[in-house]
Design a protein that fits this description.
Layout lengths: L1 H24 L3 H15 L9 E6 L6 H11 L3 E7 L8 E4 L4 H10 L4 E4 L9 E5 L13
Parallel strand pairs: 1-2, 1-5, 3-4
Antiparallel strand pairs: 3-5
Length: 146
């Protein structure tokens, strides 16, 4: 009987230690970087009185990412005028500056959690920014409203 109690206590200690490791120890720098990206994206908004026209393309096999990114950007004041799927697949999110406004592209990149930004002018698209959503992009948590 005493042996069972010792084994149970040891097992419980291992479960608690694993839980603490998972909650506090895993990820280290990656976790703090994710927290910083979330904080940055929550604070980043389109400038007041400026219409930044954005195209959002899902460049991954994860269904629904373009829709979630559209809601995310619209909540921050960006004007998402087109949503679709890209033929080219990407691992990471890329923001393309189509109109030559690097500050606007940086704002969208920050709003998307620190996405890379490239200049690829294209005046035929009638928009300012194209966002290619990569497979590693995760939408921020949304509040639960029962």
């Amino acid at each position: 009987m005493r042996r069972r109690r010792i084994i149970a206590a040891a097992g419980l200690s291992m479960v608690i230690a694993a839980g603490l490791w998972w909650a506090f120890g895993r990820g280290g720098a990656d976790e703090s970087q994710a927290d910083a990206e979330t904080t940055v994206s929550i604070d980043t908004r389109a400038p007041a009185g400026v219409r930044i026209k954005v195209e959002v393309l899902n460049a991954s096999t994860v269904r629904g990412l373009a829709r979630r990114a559209t809601m995310h950007l619209r909540d921050r004041g960006f004007d998402v005028v087109a949503v679709g799927t890209s033929r080219d697949l990407r691992d990471s999110t890329l923001v393309l500056d189509r109109s030559g406004n690097p500050e606007w592209a940086r704002l969208v990149g920050t709003a998307m959690g620190g996405a890379a930004v490239e200049l690829r002018r294209d005046s035929s698209r009638y928009l300012d920014i194209t966002v290619l959503i990569g497979a590693n992009w995760r939408p921020p948590a949304q509040p639960f409203y029962p």
